[in-house]
Amino acid sequence: MARIWIGLALVLAVLAGGVRADTLPELSATQSRTWVTPEEKALGAAWLRRLRGQVSTVDDPWLTEYLLDLIYRLYPQTGMDDGEISLVVVDSPELNAFAVPGGVVGVNGGLLLHTQREDELAAVLAHELAHLSQRHFARRQDEAGKQTAISLAGLLASVVVAAAAGSDAGFAAMATTQAYTLQSQLAYSRENETEADNVGMSILARSGFSPLAMTDMFQRMIEASRYQGRAPEYLMTHPLSESRLAQAQARARQVSGSFARSSGMAFYLVQARLKVRYAKRPEDALASFEAQLKAPELGSKEAGMQRLAALYGAALAAMTAGQDEKAGERIRMLADELGAEPMVQALQASWLARNGQPDQALHLLRRALELRPGRYALLRIYARIAAEAGELSSAITTLRELARDYPDEPAIWSELADLYGKSGALAQVHMARAEALQLKGDVQGAIRELREARKKAAGDYIAATRIVERLKTFEAWQRNPVF
């Protein structure tokens, strides 16, 4: 689980500035301070385990880091006292986002493909954070007398169906029908949506983003519904009408302040990564980026960043397609113009390692980490390249530190299990596998792994004690599932 530390986040919020507080939309009375109960945390964690067990998720360290940085910027303005948010990215090109009690925020990877600027992405995240801060899901269950676990099961089914529709065109019609059947039970009310719009705009404005970004996204969703023959999956649980759009536009115009509508470089680089991911073939993505690079330059700052992102995308697509010579050419051009950017340094290091220069790759990453110690994505990539270069001890140490700081990231535990296996640490192999399995919803499999770990840990009191404690936890989950 990615942890949002409020102390740092508050500092970032103060630095954002740029807007007069007296012009902001009023927050709901229920938002003064919002606490997440232990029961909600447990329910949200259990829901997330189930989701990971049923859909493919995106393990892209740069995407994770970027989205969390954006949440860091928004979170202090939500009114939520609890500082823990779990982020999950569903591997689907469809436009979708959702929030679950207990601090779970999810997006589809395709969300970034449907946003034109960073503030539009921030608007979707702010809207979901507003649903959490206003406790809309819990309030809706109280008002309707529904059981939360049952409703969360419906939401899980809706997300799974939407992801399936995005990955299989032949399944889309049936999935859409099933999802809309669930909508009547799951959709937020008009009152909930209006409140989330208003509170979300406040979160945006106080974080330095234009509230108009939210109405821009609404307009694009309505146009998609009109011209593509079906609504984006997001609208299944977030009903949107022309009247709601008009209300939001009127509300946004009431907010005065200075808002930059430009995006950061990281937005365009991460977007380029997703364009490569969701292209039918990497060669198609490469051709698209190359065409963009040949187009006349417009001269604006935004256009300049988009060109650099196209250069990055071309390099990544070429590597993905196995065209290493082409990738090397683009990476050298990129390094000349954007060499201090960590994403560029990491891509360059990956190219060096792949082309027989692991020592140079690791040197480049170590220098990058000296300037940015603790950087999540850099550490993930450093561990991978170090392991490939035979530096198992360094790779294991790096992943253990990451597992300590990000204990709810299943990919870290899976990679750690693989490295423990190569080093012959058998008890640790099973312990790490157990953590990866439980995070993906396979609690029974995790219990089996821990029982194997207990056999291998004979004589190691510290490891055996930890194994027994985790076994007790997992067995309790199995006996009394919260979801």
From TrEMBL:
Its EC number is 3.4.-.-. One of its GO terms (molecular function) is zinc ion binding. The active site is at residues 128, 197. GO terms for biological process: proteolysis involved in protein catabolic process. Binds 1 zinc ion per subunit. Keywords: Hydrolase, Metal-binding, Metalloprotease, Periplasm, Protease, Signal, Zinc. It comes from the Bacteria. Functions as both a chaperone and a metalloprotease. Maintains the integrity of the outer membrane by promoting either the assembly or the elimination of outer membrane proteins, depending on their folding state. This is Putative beta-barrel assembly-enhancing protease. It comes from Thermohahella caldifontis.
